[in-house]
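User: Hey, quick favor. My workstation is busy. Could you predict this chain's structure for me?
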Amino acid sequence: MEKSSFKHTLKSNEAELKRIRRIYFHFIKEGLITGYNLYEKESQPPNTGNVLSYLHADLKPTDKHFQELSAVIKNEFPTGYKILTQNRIVDKSDIVERNADYLTTQSWTDPQNMRYFALDGEELTRDEAKKLEIVVRESFQYDLLINVQEENDLRRLVNTFKKYTSRFSLDQRGLRKKLENKYAVVNAWDIPMLFFSTPGNKKPENFSDFLTVTLFNMPETIGNQPITLSTLVRRRAKELNKLLKQMNLPFSLEKRYVLRLAVSSYIDA
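Assistant: No problem, here it is.
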């Protein structure tokens, strides 16, 4: 895998990251958002099909999680599938990079190279963070974007991800059962971050396990390079919309359909 120019840009421009944290951590503190992702480019898939997005820290080709997930998808879809990154159909070893800042619980496993921050933007040591109830964690993570044309293929793909990427078994409504998931791939998360978009911005009828959520995209710059800050909001979307306008912060809106568990246990929690 090639060395990441985006990661280098982030490391070389800490002052601008502090500026971004100063603005958007306020929204986290007020409960308007639970976190945000920074993308090198706007991560909007082309409206040529249904695009399933799966977010995780271990989606490099060398990661065991990615390897096991790729193997089960290949087994479920022996004829293959297409992965999209930055509006391109690419080889399945490619990934979309992002810098993730988000609230977590103390029970979640931290990815490598995790940084910790108080809600005022002050950086904390790991030991200091463990003593606080509310901490923002920051790490370099990835998106896996899979493009499918037909709704029935999207349904099959979603069922595959629900079966293998959740630590706990999920029911038909997309909520957690009490049982540990015997099919889960290594390092499956308690709350899988799984959502999709459609070409007509309309949720298919047979997806009651997903809820409609607003994706806010805010243009930013780091190192004189344009980037996009994205966050998913449902319950307080109108309030965030109003506040961004009051602050004269530009933004655009998109519809996304998010796994019900991720909404109820995280985005709206």
